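Reading a protein record of the kind used here takes only a little practice. These numbers are not coordinates but entries in a learned vocabulary of local backbone shapes. Here is one such record, which you should read through line by line.
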Amino acid sequence: MEIERKFTIKKLPANLGSYPFHHIEQGYLNTKPVVRVRREDEEYYLTYKGSGMMTREEHNLLLNKESYYHLREKVDGNIISKKRYLIPLAHPMFRQDFPKPPADYSLTIELDVFDPPFAPLILAEVEFGSKEAAEAFVPPDWFLEDVTYRQEYHNSYMAMQIWQ
């Protein structure tokens, strides 16, 4: 299961260049259900995602380079290209009614900086081990709006739109 929340941001972290990152390119063969092909650096995947906005089933199948490029030719809509920064979030905050996590508990913020035609869009995603943790999460102060339930911020929807 994939359990994640998605946010717009107020500003980029000052030390963004110090974090590891991946170059990601992805396209969609289908959107209901989501069937996606993705290149992440030099790894290639075919992904199936079930329905849902914050919580949904997800399965990845490793592809070779040739299979990825063969399937890439068949995608509908736009190819999405982005740089994904992996930013550790030590000691994340949760609502007071949520059980206190262990002292060494941390999460990872996946900060997606989109290339044209989607630039200047930047989104932060945080994945969780449970729906309860996701719902109790208090975002860092540099996050702006929670767009988890807004379809227009989901990549599968974005890929099918006309961009300038």
